[in-house]
Amino acid sequence: MSDCIFCRIVRKEIPAEIIHEDASVVAFKDIQPQAPIHILLVPKKHIGRVMDLKPDDMALVADIHKIVQALARKFTLHESGFRLVANNGSNAGQAVDHLHYHLLGGRKMGWPPG
Ligand code: 5GP
Ligand code: ZN
User: How far is the CA of 96 from the centre of ligand 2 (A)?
Assistant: First the structure.
């Protein structure tokens, strides 16, 4: 069994503030929030990163986008705006090797990112 930290959150071995859960996706609050709303969306199955997605995983990616829309509405970010980020690999600073999308909102953000 994987000791990946996000796999452990999916299995409820590590506590997390879960915002959404269904058969294939879990969304929970980031432990070190970088914005007033900072939610991580992860597939329940272990996929390392964007580059590891297979054609069969694309329905899952679409589902994650549907959940992002629902959460943006739930947290009233749908009009003010939000950022959806998937760090992929070392130059992007990916720290956890389990695919995850950051949903960030509730403040004005700068561009370009650091
Ligand atoms: P990355 O840099 O890989 O894109 O982002 C990993 C994110 O996971 C970071 O924002 C970090 O704060 C968050 N994180 C790491 N460990 C935990 C944890 O145990 N629980 C929660 N809720 N978030 C975590
Ligand atoms: Zn994992």
Answer: 8
